[in-house]
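[09:14] KT: can someone run the structure on this one? pasting the chain below
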Amino acid sequence: MPTAAGGDPEIAQVATAFADPRRVRVLMALSDGRALPAGRLAEEAGVAASTVSNHLAILLSHGLVTAQQQGRYRYYRLANSDVEGVLEALARLAPSTPITSLRAHTRAAALRTARTCYRHLAGELGVKLFGGMLDRKWIVGGDGLHHPNDAVDRLSAPGRKDLYRLTDAGEGALAEWGVPDPVLNTGTPLRYCVDWTEQAHHLAGPLGTAVTDRFFELGYLARGTVPRSARLTSLGRDRLAWLRP
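[09:31] RB: done, structure tokens below
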């Protein structure tokens, strides 16, 4: 969503793409980092198959999604993590919809328990993971809690708290999981998000993505039946029994 040098950003123009709840559901269905064809997107987002192509065209024109042809199908994904950041920020600002059905309750519970925030782990499980890493001194520099009066701990944006860093013990433990060296040895402050359901910190950025990817690869996590949701497997419960209660 580039703007001309020196010009003001056309916020209202791109905001129109978020004004239709069906397009928001399409974006949310893509916000776990997957690339999906239009038919699958329509199913997961609850959008009519006859209209999903039009919604995708609008999202493409605003630079919010990209498309890549593979065989017979075009696969769509979020253009970048900034789009997910906007969705997370809007989720914190928007009023909650009333839960009036068992289906809605099941969906809300699944997303609160564990979900992917773009490609890192969020929800109750993501917060417990971050808290457990702090307890084991793999990460130091904070308590994992949201402090509303802290100017750098904003609810409506990903955080970048300079005090958080990975320790030598943390590097060793994550290396044993198979997390690649490039994200372990950056020497830069760790990124985090203020989780919008738990009001506490979960690990974000390249390290959060790498850890989450490894958990799926190792079988500690599996995709849930609700889009964006995840669940801890029996193997994950065994291997991650140290998670903060």
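[09:33] KT: thanks! The chain has a mean pLDDT of 83.
[09:34] RB: yep, looked fine to me
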